[in-house]
Design goal:
Elements: H1 16-35, E1 39-40, E2 46-48, H2 49-56, H3 61-66, E3 69-71, E4 77-80, H4 85-94, E5 104-113, E6 125-134, H5 139-155, E7 162-167, H6 171-185, H7 194-202, H8 213-222, H9 234-250, E8 254-256, E9 268-275, E10 284-290, H10 294-297, E11 305-311, H11 312-321, E12 333-335, H12 342-352, E13 358-360
Parallel strand pairs: 1-5, 7-8, 12-13
Antiparallel strand pairs: 2-4, 3-4, 5-6, 6-11, 7-9, 9-10, 10-11
Helix pairs in contact: 1-5, 5-9
C-alpha cells in the first residue's frame, strides 16, 4: 500500500544515489565561478511579496499565476522566492554593498518556487544557479555574463551552444514598441487567447512571451512583426552593437531573436537565452539580461546590472538522458573487527577518518 504521506505535487526527494551527480555539477560550477571572480551570496527563501511584485511586474505570469504567497503568524504578506535577483538586489541595498566597491560579481545556488503544471524536468520547487554583475554599464559586462553562462554549461559537457539575444531598450522605447505591437495585432486581437488579450492591454510585450500555439499561428498569419530593435534610441543601439562585437571577439555563436523579451519586467537593453539545438523545440537552457533600473526601483541610487539564471534540474536531466558519466567517488577503507578487537576498531576508525573515508563494521 502507498505510504500515508508523500512529497507534495511538483516536488521530489533527491536520494543518496542521485546526489552524486548534483554534487559533481555544483562543484564544477563553483570552479568556473571562482575563476571568473564571482563570490557567493545567500538570501532567505522567502521575502516580502511586494519585493517580487515590484520587480517582476504586476502583469507578469510570475506574479499573476506562479507565486507561492502567504501570510505568516504576524500577518505579514510574504512569498517564497520565485527567482533570485530581487532578493540579491534587496541585500545589496540593505547592506550598503554599493558603498564598499563599484562593481560586485555575485552568485547564488538554491531552491526557488513557482506554481505551475508539473512535467518532466519542471518542478514547483527547483534549483537554480544565479549570477549578477552589479555596477557596470559597459557592454563588456553583458558579454562576460553570456560567456560565463556558456562556460558553465561547457564545464558540464554541453557543446555547440547557441546564444539568442535581443535588445529590449528602455521604458520609453518599449512604450513606443508596445503601441506598434498593438497596431500590428489589431486585425487578430479578438482571436488571440484570453491571456494575450489581457496582456495587450496591460503589457503588450508579454504577448510575445505566450506559449499558446494558436497565438503563434496568428503571428505567422500577420507576417512581418514590428522589431523592438527599430524602436531603441542611439545609445541603446550603440550598446547593442558593442555587445555583438564582444561576443564575436569571444568566439560565442549567437543569433538575433526579435521576439525575445524574457518573462520579467525589469530587463533593459540586452536580453538573452542559451540554447542547445539538439534538444529540439524545448532547446532553451536558461537566460537573463540587463536590469539597469532595478536597484532604483527598490529605492536605491541608479545602478546598472546584468545577470542570468540556470535551472539545474533541467541541465542534469539532459546529462542523464545523454548517459554522461559522473566521476565515481574515491574508494575508501573498510574496517572489520572480531569481537575481542571491536573497542580498538572504534579508535582506529576515528584516527583513519582524519584522512580517509572509512566505513566501520
Amino acid at each position: 500500500m502507498a505510504p500515508r504521506f508523500q512529497a507534495p505535487r511538483g516536488t521530489r526527494d533527491l536520494l543518496p544515489d542521485e546526489l552524486g551527480r548534483w554534487q559533481w555539477a555544483e562543484a564544477r560550477a563553483r570552479g568556473v565561478l571562482e575563476r571568473y571572480g564571482y563570490r557567493e551570496i545567500r538570501t532567505p527563501l522567502f521575502e516580502e511579496f511586494e519585493l517580487f511584485a515590484r520587480t517582476s511586474g504586476e502583469s507578469s505570469d510570475v506574479v499573476q499565476k506562479e507565486m507561492y504567497r502567504f501570510r505568516d503568524l504576524g500577518d505579514r504578506d510574504l512569498a517564497l522566492r520565485p527567482e533570485f535577483t530581487a532578493g540579491v538586489m534587496r541585500a545589496y541595498l540593505e547592506h550598503g554593498l554599493g558603498g564598499r566597491a563599484r562593481v560586485h560579481r555575485l552568485w547564488s545556488l538554491g531552491p526557488v518556487f513557482r506554481y505551475g503544471r508539473p512535467q518532466k524536468g519542471r518542478y514547483r520547487q527547483f534549483s537554480q544557479i544565479n549570477c549578477e554583475l552589479v555596477g557596470s554599464p559597459a557592454p563588456g559586462a553583458d558579454v562576460e555574463m553570456i560567456t560565463l553562462f556558456v562556460d558553465l554549461y561547457e564545464a558540464w559537457g554541453f557543446h555547440d551552444l547557441t546564444v539568442t539575444l535581443n535588445s529590449v531598450g528602455q521604458p520609453a522605447s518599449r512604450r513606443a514598441y508596445g503601441d506598434a505591437l498593438r497596431a500590428w495585432l489589431a486585425p487578430v486581437r479578438e482571436r488571440l487567447g484570453a491571456d494575450s488579450q489581457q496582456r495587450l492591454v496591460t503589457n503588450p510585450l508579454r504577448v510575445l512571451d505566450t506559449k499558446d500555439e494558436g497565438d503563434h499561428a496568428l503571428f505567422r498569419e500577420l507576417g512581418d512583426m514590428p522589431r523592438l530593435l527599430d524602436a531603441v534610441d542611439a545609445d541603446d543601439r550603440a550598446h547593442w552593437e558593442a555587445v555583438l562585437a564582444g561576443l564575436e571577439a569571444a568566439g560565442i555563436r549567437y543569433e538575433v531573436d526579435h521576439g525575445l523579451v524574457r518573462g520579467l519586467d525589469y530587463y533593459t537593453r540586452t536580453a538573452f537565452e542559451v540554447h542547445d539545438r539538439s534538444l529540439g523545440a524545448q532547446s532553451a537552457l536558461g537566460g537573463g539580461g540587463r536590469y539597469d533600473g532595478l536597484v532604483e526601483e527598490l529605492g536605491g541610487a541608479p545602478t546598472p546590472g546584468v545577470g542570468f539564471a540556470i535551472g539545474l534540474d533541467r541541465a542534469l536531466l539532459v546529462l542523464e538522458e545523454r548517459g554522461a558519466a559522473v566521476p565515481s567517488p574515491a574508494a575508501g577503507l573498510y574496517v572489520a573487527a572480531m569481537e575481542p578487537t571491536r573497542a580498538a576498531a572504534l579508535g582506529l576508525a576515528r584516527a583513519l577518518r582524519r584522512r580517509f573515508a572509512v566505513e566501520l563494521d
